[in-house]
Predict the structure of Polysaccharide pyruvyl transferase family protein.
Amino acid sequence: MNIGILTLPLHTNYGGVLQAFALYYTLQSYGHNVSLIDGKMYEVTSCREKISVARWQFFKMLGLYKENHPQLQLREKMKIIIPFIQKLIPQQVPLQNVHQDTFDAIVVGSDQVWRGLYSDQLVFFLDFAKGWNIKRIAYAASFGVDDWKPSCNVAEYCKSLLKDFDYVSTREKNGIKICKDILECKAEWVIDPTMLLESHVYRDIACRGGSRCK
């Protein structure tokens, strides 16, 4: 089965990278062809970001700022971690290249994909795949907060999208309550994907990275 993993775009958050790798590794171990659906958060792509960077650079020329724009700083840091990510998760597909026939299933999670403060939350409810004939799974998805309060319109839309999911699970116990009370969806409580792997997998990664191994 061809499976795509949709999680928060990977950047300098090592925990985010490892949870994506763990899910990727686990699904591959079951014989599936797995790819990470990558949104490239560290790239400056939108008009708003480009205007923000241009404004920052202008004020920097005037001496009002000493540092580069935060997004540009992130891009510099990403130059160091990108090779590491590409070694761990070699198969990646840009979100804009994902179509109905790209995957048999899309797995959303883990990380705080449903928090909404970090990203456009509707993407992680697979609104772009509405009407597609695919399996939809949320594994260890997190709301990131105890009290999730979307607007009524957003809650209703997310509720309608979740009805098409074949399986929903959260990594926090409170997520089950949010799914039940707000989204009218049954969810299971599961462990974070980083806990799915045995310790030797992580030791192997550390050894390949040049750390001292025993």
Remarks:
- The CA atoms of residues 43 and 99 lie 22 Å apart.
